[in-house]
User: Fold these one by one.
Assistant:
Number 1:
Amino acid sequence: MISNPFLVLPNIQLLLFLSLILITFHTVIADDSFVWLVCSSKDSNFSTNSTYQSNLHRLLTKLPSVASPSGFSIIPEGQPPDQVFGLALCRGDVFPSQCKSYLSTAVDGIISRCPVGKTAAIWYDKCLVRYSSVNFSSVDDTAFRQILYNVGDISNPESFEELYMVLMGDLTQKAAYNSDRMFAVEKANYTSSVKLYGLVQCTRDLTREECYQCLHLSQTQMLQCCWGKQGGVVLAYSCYLRFEIYTYYDESLAEPLLLSPPPSTSTLSPKSEPVGDSGTTPARRKDGRSRDKRKILALVVIVPVGALMLLSACFLYMRRRRVPAPDAADVEKRNEESLLFNLDTIKVATDNFANRNKLGEGGFGWVYKGILPGGQEIAVKRLSINSRQGLIELRNEVVTVTRIQHKNLVRLLGFCLEENEKMLIYEFLPHQSLDKFLFNPNKCGQLDWRRRYKIIEGIARGLLYLHEESRLKIIHRDLKTGNILLDQFMNPKISDFGLAKLIDMEKTRGVASRIAGTNGYMAPEYVMYGHMSTKSDVFSFGVLVLEIITGRRVTEFHGSGHAANILSYIWKNWIKGRPLQTMDQRLGGRYHKNEAMRCIHIGLLCVQDDPKKRPTMSTVVLMLSSYSMNLPIPSSPAFLVQGSTTTENSTANEAGNCSKTKQSSREKRKSRLVSANNVTITDMEPR
């Protein structure tokens, strides 16, 4: 009786082993065609035989070996200014041994196709290699996103789209929040004979929220780009998405495979273990020896290291007791001084506030473009002499707000208080404000549906940060299209929150002594009673959403006889079952119907008369990102007509139209909820 056939037939065993090696080698080598390449422009190349080239060579040489055990790595090489950062990522269904081969092929490919590029990235079917002179670690880089699609069309695109959204939404959730490797695959039945296969993955330097946002954006853009296609791929620096109607990943490796750490032998099936002469599996014998070595290592290394750490902790503790903590007032003073800009510096940057550098005007004053000596572009808001914003209040607000940072908030760089000047200095955004595009017939064409949806999502995330995720709880109070700025990639950034109101984190609302905001965007409870809360901002967000999808100003219907404002206009079409008739006609019907309906629905939920019925911004973000979430039925919106002027431009003549009788403060505010011909807002606080 033969107990081990491999011992009797060594030649057959050798042939099988060699065949396995040849198959693996062929798989790696045959997959040598790259999917996409990004190479820096000629003005961003490095010189041959330079320090940067030497650092890059060392980085690319060791990157495959460093990344292959876990399937992912980001490493630096060299020192500034010639430092280079590299990233390597293998697809989640790839073995570590295969990963190294794939990455080596990718390294050869990026060197041959981008020989002197200071920044480059190359995608293969199974891996990504990227390097740059800029540290991109832990950054959700949205600067690049390439969509490739299968030229074949699907027979029933409507049902296919629904299945795609459910499948990719589920995968995005799993990869972002349920996978240590930020990787997920899944398949779903499209018909009795056709399945839909999905795969998503993020680079593991992202936070889970950033991974979710990256994949969700790819998921949405793929659908907007290539509706009705049988499959497609979205390549981005930080995430990867693919779907097909055929199997393209290794199903046996995708789910159970754990690249780091490797699975313990106790989880392997006994059938997969070759049995040795002694009846003990070689894997188990090896694992036993490994455990013995680990015990010895623990005694020799870990115990002394632990003792050293204990001594270090004691030393630091004693040293901290001797050194007094810095005074809080001193820290605050140093922080404030770091935000102060010299008036002469601002004058030079703006060419002494030259007219050609004017970007815009409001009741607060003018905004100028400037360039600092180092080349940084800035936007300078020069408050008018008549501004009610006090110096102490301005300083305190600026110092506070500069502590918060978010990609959907305009960054406040500092302020200047010299010679009766009061100025705020912001980062400069080239596209300026959203209203310059949305309501301009010559520019609105640049706002296709994909960009509009992206803008809505970005505003929601920025507002959520102000309300719930920052160290402070901030109510913006003046959310409008004019205060949404767009960067070079048309990403939205909320501005003018420097003069917003901070409230106690334990409180849900506050009471304003004076009403500040813009007519048409303010919630009714705020106008009537001065009650300000996060739900006041939610109301403004709802108005903003309805403006973005219709392409019409909130006050456009003022005095038209058809509707009091945009809220009543959309509500009438909603209850008549024709909400899509309110969509911006300039889109030419080129928009995603389900997304458009969802935005209209969310907009109406946000502008409901009762603040308690309005969703929080965390719920709004979830509504925008989850197509499986059922939305509640909206109730009638607040048909509040607040005129067509901003609070900064309200005049004494307008104030006279509101009421000529002496009223209490509350009665005055109630009187503002009247017909469109009589109502204006008085007693305004400039912003």
Number 2:
Amino acid sequence: MICERRHREKMDKSTVVGKCRNHFWCVIFSSIFLWFFLFYFHSSALISSKNVVRSLHNEYSIAEPNSIGFTETSKRINSTENREEPITGDGIKVENQRKNSESPNHSRITGNETKSSNKGIISGEEKQELSEGNESENEPPVSETEERGDLIHEQTITERRTEPVGDDSDVEIRDQPSVIRGSKPTSDEEEEEERISDQAELETGEGKGEPVSNRNNSDMENGFEPVNRTRSKPSSVPADIQSPVNRQPEIENRPKPRSDQCSGQYVYVHPLPRRFNDDILKECRRISLWTDMCRFITNKGLGPPIGNSKGVFSNTGWYATNQFTLDVLFYNRMKQYKCLTNNSSMASAIFVPFYAGFDISRYLFGFNTTVRDSTSLALIKWLTEKPEWKVLGGRDHFLVSGRITWDFRRLTDEDSDWGNKLMLLNEAKNMTMLVIESSPWHRNDIGIPYPTYFHPSRDIEVFQWQNRMRRSKKRYLFSFAGGPRPNLPGSIRGQIMEQCQASRRKCKLLGCYNKSNKCDNPGNVMKLFQSSVFCLQPPGDSYTRRSAFDSILAGCIPVFFHPGSAYVQYIWHLPKNYTTYSVLISEDEVREGKVNIEKRLSRIPKEQVRAMREQVIRLIPRVIYADPRSRLETLEDAFDLAVQGVIRRVDRVRKAIIDGVDPDAGYKEANSWKYNLFGTEVENEWDHFFAKPIRSISY
């Protein structure tokens, strides 16, 4: 019994001790868990409260450095990640709402009110989180107004503007002082009125679908020099141009978006009545007395395709193009121009699609001067009534004709005199006239290449032809394709043909007489030039010849006898250093029998001949007109260079007008050939070639 009682007491004691031990460890673990829980909850609440305060700091920071509460300007926030709700600060979401740049977003907090148009608003859950964070630190809850009042001291925050940056997925939030065009801030009402005024300016004169720049940008950003409105030179500007102060806004503020690849290259095409172009083509049988021009205006002015039965041409891109069809060919190429615009105020140049060459061709023989001038006078009347003309007095307009300048420069009103007087009209003198032969003594016409037989539609066709011309074998030292001009005083063609016939081993002659059609066959001409190192190009009825461009196309070095045949004509298409691609032999030496053409050409070193021939082949893309039904990818053809030349010319005129200077001043018009080529009027070795304007033209 005693043993049993002691054993029971021992067991009860151990049980009590075990219970006490278990209870002790439970208390310890419970205390540790409770302490950890309180520490974690306290830290979370503290972090949440700090995040809210930091978010409010970022959200409502003051732009002025002397504002109470913060001394740093708020930073620009860019949403660079592709997410639906950009985050500002540490947890406050900003709604991704877009407003147009012409609608400024105002955000002002005063007293107990909050106004926001394009900014995040604290949600109810976030307000609750803020309240819980304050309570967790055993502090009395702070009202929303009091907390924001502590942060900004009830100061009015600066205007917040949201502007699109980059693509549509980017948003930029920027803090800016509400100061416009001055150093003093304006009130909300004044700012809103000015914004509406600026928007009205933007909406006037906008193009149909073309990008335009903000007219609040500087003149330099729009591509123009700033206008000095205190100049004392406006009297030197021609009367037909609006003064730099009072002219229309297109001159000074013509929009040129910086991101637009066509900026500064736009061309506006006048919608002329059909009587000036399409209706003329309907009378195609009247255009020429000796040639059926109806077949040559087919294929957009290229004429019928040429077969390659003799292997002279490549398989594609060759047409029997007439040398006088540039009117329609150029207009159809213009329809493929990549920088056309329907907004004339954006245009760097304005194209007039008048078929001037076809028009005068109808009336050259058997019509009096009244009939010959009628269409040209009607065109000028139509143009001068248009607002586009009044901006620069027509100095940004250009016209293309597939005939030589002398067809449009009739000096008298006698019916026996040649051509019409289109280029002598006062209004037309302001325009740029592109013709296949220009006048060396007049400033308003520029020469561009005659059409050739090659009109590629792809770059590869040009490259393949160039490589073929590099491999072609030259059987003859020089050649000539043409006929004599016995009735033309001073012509050297007869002597050239005699020298060629005397050098039969070195020279090949293709005689073109009235009853012979050998030169009318493209295959005969191109085959001759492909087999010759040099191709003779003497003047004919006038200074220039289509044959010069046929020879370049065939990789044959042209030999000129007058600088007016090419050097002073095609200044946008041929190198100014004429010795790199051609040979000049004075026609005076040939006429006086002082030069032997064969010996002169034979003395040129072979290395120089090889370099000249390569330069000629490189010029091929610059003297051909691509197929108007397509567009070359990387190469620039004769059309592209012509348009670029016109735009540069108009830009110089526009700048002169803005500067208050007469654009026609600077040199005598009779020295146009010298100024265009050399940029100076000093005495030149070619002066005797241009001592007297050419008038003895035989047709």
Number 3:
Amino acid sequence: MTAIAIWLNSEDLRNPAWWVAGDSRVTTSGGNADDGVKVFSLPVICRTADSEGYFSELAYAHSFGYCFAGSTIMGQNSYLALVPLLSNLITAPGYRPSMENVAQYVHSYLRATFDSFKLVAGAGALFDAALFGYCHQTQRFRMFHITPKRTEADGTVLDLSEALGPFLYLGNSREEVTERLDKAIREQAPGAGLIGMAPAHVIQQCINDDSMPGIGGSIQFGFANAAGFQQLAVYKPRVMGEPEAFISYMGKELGADLSYVGDAKVSRPAIPWPWG
């Protein structure tokens, strides 16, 4: 299952960003796998026609954060399908879609996929997804939530709404974790209301909590600002309090065998953790 929190980190007022922290546990019939990717960069790329009529001129390139909780098949397969669709848009010169346009398209695709998959998987098809980032069209940070909704006419369908709160939580133990996140944010941000990394610590506590068996593995991070979405690895001490550290990606150390492709070095931005 899952625990993912998304919040607007405003510690740096000159460069606020949506931050996301999540666990990596995927529950299967055979047990738990603790290296599930649930946080992704969703690119949106538009091209216009060149002088010969070929759509080769880059008009707009941006990326948003995309994450999911629930059905891994729905979450990962839909992402893999959306990337080639949204990264190959053709437009008139000067046009670029808004983030709301992108959210509506993602919702339409997920709804069609879900309507087919639920006939086979039933409740196993249920999942939540979030799209978050900076919208250049409206020049503000926005976040959209796609979640199951029960209707009389069509049974369970996927609903799209804009998330307007200081944070959004996707995953298990929703009521308990939401209360923890709300408390952590209120305690960290009295008066000025500046939110830092408190929600990430809540997610780490959930990963460590044996009473929440559906949440586990390692923590994964990313952030979305005006430049787009960046997924992060984690820079961790081998022993707490000692200087030696290593880079971990999805719980795996990026040692010598995973740091190079031939003579090309893997450049994976990393955040020190625990932090703050």
